[in-house]
Amino acid sequence: MSPSPAxxxxxxxxxxxxxxxxxxxxxxxxxxxxxxxxxxxSGALGTVFGVDSQLIRDGTYFVAEVVxxxxxxxxxxxxxxxxxxxxxxxxxxxPLDPLSEPARIRAFFVHPDWARRGIGxxxxxxxxxxxxxxxxxxxxxxxxxxxxxxxxxxxxxVMERYEVLLPNGxxxxxxxxxxxx
Length: 181
What we know:
Elements: E1 8-11, H1 17-31, H2 38-44, H3 53-58, E2 61-66, E3 69-77, E4 103-110, H4 119-133, E5 138-144, H5 148-153, E6 157-165, E7 171-180
Parallel strand pairs: 4-5
Antiparallel strand pairs: 1-2, 2-3, 3-4, 5-7, 6-7
């Protein structure tokens, strides 16, 4: 058996959005099924789990690519929104002050065939480096229970656990983490 090709990390472009719209539901349905119910997954797809094009326009969102195919995505934000897609936004997403407010880690998804191969870790390293370069001293994350181990491995501490009410009435357990960078 030959080794699988290496993945490359690059900034996401608006041209990548159709690929992300295919990747995100595939990732969520496969990798979150061990933790979340079908009702939680279907209620979160499109609002909590989906493309936030502001991240792409801001140049803070990355993709992992293998031979021209996107197999992972994630990034950081200099804006107030903690999580969610374009469809979940109801008000302007104002910028944060890097001197007094934390950046946000946002929207990590990996193709199930590429899970646990270091994609999330590499994107996390790129996101943290970019947030530091932008002057941020702290990062907050609202993570799924599936993503929590990755973020804890980077030294993020749990601040609170709560549930997000979904459009279908289901509740999605999440965890808020924070770290000084």
